[in-house]
């Protein structure tokens, strides 16, 4: 090979190396999310906005950055009064209400700002809604959810360990760890949720594998779809999740494991039709969720909180928040539903 050709090959090699490095850096940045908090935004509730005439009695909790960082907020229904449950300088998200409505668990970051895409540096906190008292429930933990009886909280530790903790005693037990069965070693377990019979978990796999499905605790995995946020219904007869195919890319779907059947469940017809963060009330009469006009970023996009009475037309979903900041991961406790019909 002549000297000229060697120079050309060398230059091509340098270009390819830089392209791979840049692409790898972009992927790493995407996994880490934003390095700075998003703008706090402002209220956009105008006088001519028609609020829902009737809402169930209860309350909603969610994560919002409208005070400068992500705090846990509460909205009482039906009057829509908003109060701030936390004012900690660190980031908080994924709040979940106990079955009796007395406590909330959520994730809190180790440093003031951490993107939700960076799933490792978090702790799980439990908040007594009556007294306002907080307690550290689990270190290096994320994605907390309650057992149906309220005795246990389940969470993800170090990205790969699905763990159970007794709320009263603090005793922990690892339910499943990546690397067993069909799930590869060090595969990230995102939003794991235990089944009602406590024999399976629904989970989104990230890292070396990218799929959602159901796994038993030997790691036998059953793939369902391409989406995320797979969650069990109260009796285990169906799961609900986010997937592609909606008006603005996303929609909510139902999967019935006994029938191996997938059905589109909800896709809003209006401008806010990029649905995310679905969570059924314990009675399963209502679905609380976030929706944007197309922007996807979990903790930066202008997601608004919507409440849908299950089984009613999609256009009847009620918008609860009106703010240009980021509102995400809502949950709802219903003390008095609206009468049917």
Low-confidence stretches: 12-30
Query: What's the number of extended β-strand segments?
Result: 24
| Percentage of residues in DSSP E strands | 35-45%
What is the third-level CATH name, the topology of the largest domain? Answer: Neuraminidase
Number of helices: 1
Shape: globular
Question: What is the class of the largest domain in the CATH system?
Answer: Mainly Beta
| Rg value | 21 Å
Helix content: under 10%
Mean pLDDT: 90
H-E order: HEEEEEEEEEEEEEEEEEEEEEEEE
Fold and architecture overview:
With 341 residues, the protein is mainly β. It has 2 domains: 1-32; 55-336, Neuraminidase, CATH 2.120.10. Helix content is 9%, strand content 45%. It has 1 helix and 24 strands. It has one helix spanning 3-32, and strands spanning 57-64, 71-77, 81-84, 92-97, 103-109, 122-128, 134-138, 141-146, 152-157, 161-166, 172-177, 188-194, 200-206, 211-216, 221-225, 228-232, 239-246, 249-256, 261-266, 274-280, 286-292, 304-309, 318-319, 327-336. The strands form 6 sheets. Strands 3-2-1-24 form a 4-stranded antiparallel β-sheet, with no helix packed on it. Strands 4-5-6-7 form a 4-stranded antiparallel β-sheet, with no helix packed on it. A hairpin with a 4-residue loop joins strand 13 and strand 14.
Summarize the structure.
With 341 residues, the chain is mainly beta.
Core attributes:
single chain, 341 residues, four-stranded antiparallel β-sheet, 1 helix, 24 strands, 9% helix, globular
Any chance you could write out the topology, listing elements then pairs?
Layout: H1 3-32, E1 57-64, E2 71-77, E3 81-84, E4 92-97, E5 103-109, E6 122-128, E7 134-138, E8 141-146, E9 152-157, E10 161-166, E11 172-177, E12 188-194, E13 200-206, E14 211-216, E15 221-225, E16 228-232, E17 239-246, E18 249-256, E19 261-266, E20 274-280, E21 286-292, E22 304-309, E23 318-319, E24 327-336
Antiparallel strand pairs: 1-2, 1-24, 2-3, 4-5, 5-6, 6-7, 8-9, 9-10, 10-11, 12-13, 13-14, 14-15, 16-17, 17-18, 18-19, 20-21, 21-22, 22-23
């Amino acid at each position: 090979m002549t000297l000229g050709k060697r120079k050309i090959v060398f230059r091509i090699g340098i270009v390819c190396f830089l392209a791979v490095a840049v692409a790898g850096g972009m992927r790493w940045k995407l996994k880490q999310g934003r390095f700075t908090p998003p703008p706090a935004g402002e209220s956009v509730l105008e006088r001519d906005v028609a609020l829902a005439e009737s809402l169930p009695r209860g309350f909603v909790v969610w994560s919002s950055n409208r005070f400068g960082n992500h705090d846990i907020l509460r909205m009482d229904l039906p009057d829509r009064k908003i109060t701030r449950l936390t004012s900690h300088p660190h980031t908080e998200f994924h709040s979940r209400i106990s079955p009796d409505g007395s406590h909330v668990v959520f994730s809190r970051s180790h440093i003031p700002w951490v993107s939700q895409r960076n799933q490792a540096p978090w702790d799980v906190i439990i908040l007594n809604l009556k007294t306002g008292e907080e307690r550290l429930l689990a270190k290096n933990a994320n994605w907390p959810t309650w057992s149906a009886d309220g005795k246990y909280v389940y969470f993800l530790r170090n990205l790969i360990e699905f763990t159970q903790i007794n709320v009263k005693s603090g005793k922990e037990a690892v339910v499943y760890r990546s690397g067993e069965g069909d799930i590869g070693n060090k595969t990230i377990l995102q939003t794991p949720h235990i089944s009602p019979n406590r024999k399976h978990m629904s989970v989104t796999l990230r890292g070396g594998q990218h799929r959602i499905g159901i796994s038993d605790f030997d790691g036998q995995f059953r793939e369902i779809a391409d989406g995320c946020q797979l969650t069990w219904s109260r009796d285990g007869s169906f799961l609900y999740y986010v997937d592609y195919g909606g008006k603005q890319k996303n929609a909510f779907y139902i999967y019935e494991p006994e029938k191996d059947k997938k059905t589109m469940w909800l896709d809003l017809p209006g401008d806010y039709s990029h649905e995310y963060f679905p969570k059924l009330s314990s009675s399963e009469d209502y679905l609380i969720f976030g929706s944007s006009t197309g922007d996807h970023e979990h903790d930066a996009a202008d997601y608004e909180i919507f409440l849908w009475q299950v089984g009613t037309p999609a256009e009847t979903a009620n918008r609860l928040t009106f703010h240009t900041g980021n509102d995400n991961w809502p949950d709802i406790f219903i003390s008095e539903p609206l009468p049917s019909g």
